[in-house]
Automatic annotation (TrEMBL):
GO MF annotations in UniProt: ATP binding; dephospho-CoA kinase activity
Name of the gene this protein is made from: coaE
Similarity comment: family membership: Belongs to the CoaE family.
Protein name: Dephospho-CoA kinase
Localization of this protein: Cytoplasm
Binding positions (ATP): G11, S12, G13, K14, S15, T16
Predominant localisation class: cytoplasm
Catalytic activity of the protein: 3'-dephospho-CoA + ATP = ADP + CoA + H(+)
Amino acid sequence: MFVIGLTGGIGSGKSTVADLFRELGVFAIDADDVAREVVMPGEPALESIAEHFGKAILNEDGTLDRAALRKRVFEDDTERQWLEALLHPSINERLKHYLEEADSPYQLLVSPLLLETEQYRLCQHVLVVDVHQDTQIDRTMARDDNDREQIERIIASQMPRDKRLAAAGDVIDNDQPVARVRQQVDELHRHYLEMAAEFSGDAAP
């Protein structure tokens, strides 16, 4: 199992890049999707969240009000740390399961908190999707119902850009046109196929 950890700050375009790899036949699992799974109705984590924050954190149908929860935890670091301690072990176990079940030559683990959590231990290589902070803010405001101040708090809670780039094995510049980003993905895909073959011992002598 050769896993590439794909990460980047909020609004950097991780999902777009992951989709380009998927078009090439690469299995990609998004930690955000798994994070939604572990708080579905009936999951123990959702019961713990409702007990901790109160029933007001739930929608009328019993699902988690993710926007309300996001607002609460990014206004209070203590609450954010409590939530992360609750969710991350369950998320990591499910990520490991999905990656082990995949059958592509290598796999992508897509996560905004790859380097801030134990998720990086599931990976053999790190790919960072990078954009300027102004791009992060503009894209996130256009996508989500969040104001600039809240987005800036989220950015501040994530690893600083310079440290993220320092930890990268490869970087995709996503401030460029889609055609150029696709070209970067194609080049990296060929490289990762070679790395995966060497990792598994299948490389040509």
